[in-house]
Write a structure and sequence with these properties.
Length: about 240
């Protein structure tokens, strides 16, 4: 790289013959007709303002005079992906875990008496890809829709609990119980309704519009009539007796 300014060397024209020796500390005078060898200058090299601001970028290509080149660590930030509003349909491939459903009494109910339903579900995470980016979807149960198979459909905000856990006697009403009015075979179907949040990592988290439904396998229930009768023997002793 060339530099601006002029460096005056001892013995150069205009400096006078023997000027190097006169200053002392230099090489001895040369013989007549013998050219003196140039000495290293002790004067600082003078740079023009343009040369003082001359930089090189990471490709060792000179930057324009007076401008600083951009180093690798100052490169432009990675473009932030455009993430649109997310609906339940967008995360259809992320299947939340179906709830676990039990009834009490197990698989049987009496006409005119409450049957209790208990549904187990908890928050959980499912990983995958959305809009071409790796994500994790957090599902949190927000409600439970009960279809009791007799035309009754009810949604509650709890999965319920057993009579023992609630401290209640058997065959008493609970927030998740149901009373059948006719005997027969029914199927109880419970659908867990989840809210969801999508985590894009460094790009942040985004809530899903609406709820995501996950339905448990149906539970068969046999509804029977219960009659009270005064008998001399139990059904174990007399299976064909009244009410057996």
């Amino acid at each position: 790289m060339e530099v601006g300014g002029v460096v005056e060397l001892p013995g150069s024209p205009g400096g006078g013959a023997g000027s190097g020796a006169a200053r002392g500390g230099g090489a001895p005078p040369t013989a007549p007709g013998e050219q003196s060898a140039p000495r290293e200058s002790t004067q600082p090299i003078q740079l023009t303002p343009c040369e003082q601001n001359f930089f090189y970028n990471v490709e060792t290509r000179p930057a324009p005079c007076g401008e600083r080149a951009t180093p690798a660590e100052e490169a432009e930030d990675e473009e932030v992906p455009a993430i649109p509003p997310i609906s339940a349909a967008d995360i259809a491939s992320f299947l939340p875990v179906p709830p676990a459903v039990t009834t009490e009494p197990a698989g049987i109910a009496a006409v005119g008496m409450p049957m209790n339903t208990v549904t187990g579900s908890s928050a959980h995470t499912v990983e995958g890809q959305l809009f071409g980016l790796p994500v994790s979807v957090r599902f949190t149960p927000a409600g439970f829709r009960h279809d009791f198979g007799d035309g009754t459909v009810r949604t509650v905000d709890t999965g319920g609990a057993s009579w023992a856990t609630l401290g209640q006697p058997e065959f008493t009403p609970t927030p998740t119980s149901h009373t059948y009015r006719a005997r027969g075979e029914y199927t109880v179907t419970v659908t867990a309704l989840y809210t969801a949040v999508v985590d894009f990592g460094e790009w942040g988290t985004y809530p899903v519009l609406g709820e995501v439904a996950s339905t448990a396998p149906g539970q068969p229930v046999r509804v029977v009539e219960v009659h009270t009768a005064l008998v001399s023997r139990t059904c174990m002793e007399q299976p064909a007796g009244p009410g057996c």
